[in-house]
Amino acid sequence: MPRITPWLWFDMNAEEAANFYLGIFPNSKIGEITRYTEESTGGDIPVPPGTPMTVEFFLDGQVFYGLNGGPQFRFSEAVSFQIDCADQEEADHYWYALTADGGEESACGWLKDKYGLSWQVVPKRLNELLADPDPEVAKRVTAAMMKMRRIDVSALEAAARG
């Protein structure tokens, strides 16, 4: 199967966003940056030649591209990126880093970062508890999760115990 690469449309701050994400995710780097030329800056995108047009970046090995396309399109919750975290400490790292400087908490481990991109921060233990063979445990864990913004594993485990 060919590789699927996410492309993200930014309002002229793709390089800034890429650097923000690089500061959060390990083993990350900027790749190629293409720039607007005299020929590509006309029409709906009046930007100076030399302005970054696309920014390739890698977050822990996963390639992403940011396009500086202007304000025409915005991110929505219809698309999100899930971060599967080993434990509460790792989940908290991503949660607090991605909600910093203007990010917004949502429900059940979802958030929007300061660029409006939606993320799901999911500790591994959440899925384990939701998959418990006892349907009453899963029901209690689900009810507890539905009241949370940031996932709190200790509260979920308490709910599982009843």
From TrEMBL:
<keyword id="KW-0808">Transferase</keyword>
<dbReference type="Pfam" id="PF06983">
    <property type="entry name" value="3-dmu-9_3-mt"/>
</dbReference>
<protein>
    <submittedName>
        <fullName>Putative 3-demethylubiquinone-9 3-methyltransferase (Glyoxalase superfamily)</fullName>
    </submittedName>
</protein>
<keyword id="KW-0489">Methyltransferase</keyword>
<dbReference type="InterPro" id="IPR028973">
    <property type="entry name" value="PhnB-like"/>
</dbReference>
<dbReference type="InterPro" id="IPR009725">
    <property type="entry name" value="3_dmu_93_MTrfase"/>
</dbReference>
<dbReference type="InterPro" id="IPR029068">
    <property type="entry name" value="Glyas_Bleomycin-R_OHBP_Dase"/>
</dbReference>
<dbReference type="GO" id="GO:0032259">
    <property type="term" value="P:methylation"/>
</dbReference>
<feature type="domain" description="PhnB-like">
    <location>
        <begin position="3"/>
        <end position="122"/>
    </location>
</feature>
<dbReference type="GO" id="GO:0008168">
    <property type="term" value="F:methyltransferase activity"/>
</dbReference>
<keyword id="KW-0830">Ubiquinone</keyword>
